[in-house]
Amino acid sequence: MDLTLKVWRQKNSQAKGKMETYPISDISEDSSFLEMMDVLNGNLINSGKEPVAFDHDCREGICGMCSMYINGQAHGPMRGTTTCQLHMRSFRDGETIYIEPWRSGSMPVIKDLVVDRSAFDRIQQAGGFVSVNTSGNTQDANAVPIPKVNADKAFDAAACIGCAACVATCKNSSAMLFVAAKVSQYSYLPQGEVEAKDRVVNMVNQMDKEGFGNCTNTGACEVECPKGISLEYIARMNREYVSATISSEKK
Amino acid sequence: MEFLVSRTFYARGQTGQQLLLGAYSAMNRQIAKGKIQMFSRHEMVELVKVDGKARGIIARNLITGELERHSAHAVVIASGGYGNVFFLSTNAMGSNTTAAWKIHRNGAFFANPCYTQIHPTCIPRSGEHQSKLTLMSESLRNDGRIWVPKNLEDAEKIRSKTIKPTELKEEDRDYYLERRYPAFGNLVPRDVASRAAKERCDAGYGVNSTGEAVYLDFSAAIERYGKEKALVSGIKQPSVEKIIELGEEVVEQKYGNLFQMYEKIVAENPYKTPMMIYPAVHYTMGGVWVDYNLMTTIPGCYCIGEANFSDHGANRLGASALMQGLADGYFVLPYTIGDFLANDIRTGPISTDLKEFEIAEKNVSDTIDKLMSIKGDKPVDYFHKRLGKVMWEFAGMARNKEGLEHAISEIKTIRKEFWENVRIPGDKDEMNTELEKAGRVADFLELGELFAKDGLERSESRGRTF
Amino acid sequence: MALSGLFLIIFLVTHLVINSFTLAPSKELFNDAAHFMATNPVIYLMQYVLALGFIIHIGMGIKLTLQNRKARPKSYAYNQPSKNADLSSRSMIISGGLVIVFLILHLRDYFYEIKFVGLPSGTTDYDLVVNLFSSPIYTGVYVISFIVLGFHLNHGFKSAFQSVGANHKKYNPAIKIAGTAYSILISVGFSTIAVVHFINQYSFN
């Protein structure tokens, strides 16, 4: 198939950047979107230009690196799919494809389609862990009985890969779905319950400090999330946050 | 109702991911406490030795291109395997051998480089554009039956899409693993399964357009589960459709996300038609030599996880890479590194102004300048793909003397051409993905030769080496 | 936002009930109710609470919208927001803004008119209502405003529940249905009253 690509190019974080147009031909339907970008880059290098920089790693939908806003949707038109899992058979011959990086004030563009998601690291450093020193004290996980429903809910939340598609698609650039997933992953389990109050308050505060927007429950994040994280985690986090603020031991 | 004992601890087809998230969150806690500093988007490009001991590294900031000096009393390399020397592997695109290779070039022995594992159940290559191979969890082998058509004409028809695999009757199917290995059937060890698949495909029975694929069929399992479920649910005399429906539900519970992933990539429904699989490079048992304390032959330089050679010998068993990650990082190194550091208890901080750091940094800087100045006409991937093809053909699942000798000379040629003709656009003082790739491929072009040399030395059949 | 929104949701129901009294056979029912609302000390206090509710809701809405816009300094060259969020959820500031415009007109017509200008002698509150709705343009503006309000409520209702954490798969369908029913009730309810008065002017003469 032949396509016209409109790609965001930006030399570095200070540069203004703009959309460039690149025609491309002979792309196989079975190739993945990133393999198509590889072909584009090969063409660019051969014609003496700089290739498009983009984040990628596992190319299997689990690492959370690939992050392209394709034709106005995070990770492209398919649901429950990351950019690397998108295949060219989802596009028509002759189509024009717009490719942009995630856009959010809290995730500045580093170059072309690469953005800085260290805000997510800082949010996780604020509380996304269980304070246990397990060296030498490991306990058999099966010794702690946990209702399967809770374990399943925690696991569904733990499926979040931190790709930030939720932030990218949210009209308010809010990170609530991400924070809710990371908070819920722990708060459903007894080991995580111990610090649940501090965790939710600290992580939400860090999220606000990073400059992410506020949630107005449009639900766009849930639709675009490649791992299908549900809005119910946001509601749960809202409950946790309110209860923690009211009943916290801290002043 | 008892199923067969599960193969290993299993977390919905993302066991590794969840272990990673657990370790990552523990790391975050330490970062928040100020005990660890994290430098993301940095790459180690050289080891620094002072008085023969590993005392730090040179790292390149991948965003600004700056070279940084980091000093320490000991260095631990946990940089993973070198499967990407084959270009196509199940490894992530960023995986490389540079950190391990640099310490080897600084004197750390490298052991068993030619011991690589080729995993039998990966999604086959769909064309020339293929950039990596996707692993399907080996747990699928618990329930799938592997087969190719018995007759060459049927194989041809399937490849040209004239007939569908579901149309082939049982007697026209060759369940070759069950045929060749009656005791273990479809559960033979990885290397046996991989070699058997390649053998059938080389003989012309491959079932996809590249001729490199065999079937992993779940229809028997679906039927079996369906019957069991019907029995448990008290449904008397269930219809064939009902059995299949119930069976598919059970299979979805067990492997749902794997089947979904397969369908996304191949655009075929594995519930209704057999899955296609083919072996792919997955793990490297070889690596940097370490003693029982996980220290390399460079004092103060440790190497853990897939980057070292230990634990697996010539054949790695399922989930044992995860096991090694835990064993090395959690049970062993925390206790053995103290022994080395104890001797340095009176050594103050190591200064990064030492001559050794200056020299190391200059070496890196010179190499980068050299790479940038070549300005040939082939991109890095061109050389990487060529190397990968040579490795797969001559240093892959089955090797012989002529093939390996050919590989060695081919790799030498490719390396020479690389240093004369690679083209790296852009600048070194900013993010430059081609420069990053070039450094890694340069190291692969050296490792590849060592790999083939090692293979040549071993005139034996051991584990995964045939 | 959620709390002030929930408060206003309750207010709207009360207002609709009282307005529906204008459809009663006797005009005394509405006039008595209006009188009660104007003189009862508790209601008198609630006026201020209501005003506060509106101010908080509007103020926060504007503040949060500006904050959220700042969170994305550079917009997408090509975006398809309709693919994953419905229009009412994405345009609350606009529908809200239109409701504010309506509110100003509404307050001037009734609150300001009754409290500060004073009705001509002999005219009751009921008469004021009926007279105002004799104009087709006036009625049209009000009906359009009610539709916009319904649109605003369509997202607001469900969103308020989600924000306070009331999300459970057993009750979510009920909340969704209640939200839609509520917006239709308010929108159609108020509009019906307006239109009935407009039509009735012809049947009197």
Describe the protein in words:
In chain A, 35% of the residues lie in helices and 12% in strands. Chain A is of the alpha+beta class. In chain A, the strands form two sheets. Chain A has a five-stranded mixed β-sheet with strand order 2-1-5-3-4. A two-stranded antiparallel sheet of chain A has the order 6-7. The radius of gyration of chain A is 20 Å and the shape is elongated. Chain B has a five-stranded antiparallel β-sheet. In chain B, 43% of the residues lie in helices and 13% in strands. Chain B folds into three domains: 165 residues, FAD/NAD(P)-binding domain, CATH 3.50.50; 157 residues, no CATH class; 103 residues, Methane Monooxygenase Hydroxylase, Chain G, domain 1 (Up-down Bundle). With 466 residues, chain B is of the alpha+beta class. Chain B is globular, with a radius of gyration of 25 Å. Chain C is mostly helical. Chain C has one domain. Helices cover 79% and strands 0% of the residues of chain C. Chain C starts with a helix and ends with a helix. The model of chain C has no long low-confidence stretch (mean pLDDT 91). The chains are: A alpha+beta (251), B alpha+beta (466), C mainly alpha (205). At the A-C interface, helix 8 and helix 9 of A face helix 3 and helix 7 of C.
What's this model, at a glance?
The complex is a heterotrimer of chains A (251), B (466) and C (205). By secondary structure, chain A is α+β, with helices and mostly antiparallel strands.
